[in-house]
Protein 1
Amino acid sequence: MEFENITLTKEIPIATIQLNRPDVLNALNHRLLSELVFCLEQLDSDDSVNCVIITGNEKAFAAGADIKEMAEADTIDMLSRDSFSAWDRIRRIKKPVIAAVSGFALGGGCELAMMCDIIIASETAKFGQPEINIGVMPGAGGTQRLTRAVGKYRAMEMILTGGMMSAGDAAKSGLVNRVFPVELYLEEAKRLARLIASKPPLAVKLAKESVLKSEELSLKDGLEFERKNFYMLFSSEDQKEGMKAFVEKRDPRWKGK
Ligand code: CAA
């Protein structure tokens, strides 16, 4: 697939996908989402890549779904376009994905950041779900993920007023992991990606899967799920190598097997 709306940079073992519609603040049209999903799925099955970053530019991570593309749609159009199926496929990516956010992360842009596993922000980042201002409401997970991230009361205010949250407030609320000056946020996201990429890939995947399950399962079912993944890792060469290397006081050499 030729990419028109994103760029992909591989710095093995990490890869960075940059959303690239700067003229419209990276508004997420159908084509961009298709490219993003295709690219993520390719990277998910690329053994040389262990961690992925999604970023935008200094002014915008993404200012939401493309309003111009949706403006004339009716319910049947929205159903038959089924654009949210792309979002479901992003949710199924097994490798860790970091959002590196600067500027606007609004509507679908905020929802995309929240679908990632870790959010690193620049001091200029602004998060919001402004759909209420254009007669709708979040549709790609905002009411659920924002509420889980920042709690009912803050989420309710943001979603009902359409107001924006600064990077600092987002960090205090638990929506953002860390905030850096704008000239550093992408490099810091890459530093974190390289750190995660240096860990045993199978354990990373199963740990990510287990953390995500905590959003869906009861504590009892979640603990059982976690335990099965933990036991499963004892079939891996990396478990043998990791524990042997500890005993032998040397660095482990991961195989991802
Ligand atoms: N869709 C399409 N185009 C968009 C866009 C969007 N979401 N956001 C910005 N743009 C376009 C603007 O139309 C403008 O294009 P033109 O130069 O051709 O006029 C260009 O990007 C620059 O935008 P502004 O001139 O508005 O820039 P600004 O700095 O004055 O304002 C902003 C920035 C506050 C982010 C403002 O652009 C804005 O409010 N954008 C819309 C945000 C929004 O409502 N997002 C939610 C979309 S719905 C959604 O996401 C549903 C869902 O849950 C999936």
Note: The mean pLDDT is 97.
Protein 2
Amino acid sequence: MTDLTNLLQSVPPAIASAGSLVELEAIEAETIGRGSGIADARRGLGGITDAQERRETGRAINDVAQELTRLIADRRAVLALAEEDERLQTDRADVTLPGRRPPLGSTHVITQTMDEIVDIFVGLGYTVARGPEAETDFYNFTALNFHETHPSRLESDTLYLDYGEQEEEILLRTHTSPMQARYMEQHDPPVFIVVPGKVFRADAVDATHSPVFHQIEGLAVDDSITFADLKGTLAEFTRQFFGKDTEVKFIPHYFPFTEPSAEMHAYTKGRWIELLGCGMVNPAVFEHVGYDPDKVTGFAFGMGAERMAMVRHGITDLRALIDPDQRILEQYR
Ligand code: PHE
């Protein structure tokens, strides 16, 4: 009995000063848990022969146990609250901080350039057509009036695919012009199309060459298209793309599929620079696609997307556009 009274003296201050739930649990185990004095006392009850005494002792033990259990429960509630408060403090989320943004991608500068060029022509009433990258010799050369012995047909210039019979040789198109023939075969005039796409040539990579690059082809065919329409259209395009004061000039050139043919140069950033090839559609091409050369005329042009991007952004080495170095590419978002 004195042991029990002692417990009521010594344990409550310990409970009151328990600083954490863990500490409190240790006190609980020690005082009312299995190996505790209270458990011992309960086990000793069986040895008390006098029923009256046994009952009184039992009640006394229960009173002490209940009192301690209550004190522990109260303290546990206080400590649990304090610990939760502390967690809320330390784990507090500052909802005013900016969120973490995942890195944002963007289209490649060549894609941007092609989109922009195509948009300008769409604004002038053109529609967009696309053709195959693996092309037949016929559409890439023959239908475009290339002579059988034209040097572009050599394997030193053109990448051939080992596919099919000799007479329907398949190659990687060397320009987007084959789509001129494909489109006219399928559609009656008038035709106003632009054809963006990849083209391929047997070139090694250097500052101005790549075996894969991009072109935007244009074709306008109607019953009275003149060279003046060609000049007006391409001058307008150049003003929209490079700025409204940009001057252009046309220098005679040769392409098998246009006659007359020209190179268009533009004066931008203090110098004249060659931008594209163009000309009036050669009547021989009209014949190949089943148009009557006495009834229609037209002009065509083709420009390199990489070149346009380089002139626009002042890039001097084409490899900057091919290299997947994000520090470079990020500048052209
Ligand atoms: N296909 C020519 C080239 O790749 C460009 C061009 C297109 C010239 C249309 C005239 C007319 O060089």
Note: Strands lie at 127-128, 134-136, 160-161, 170-172, 191-200, 212-222, 247-255, 258-268, 271-281, 297-304.
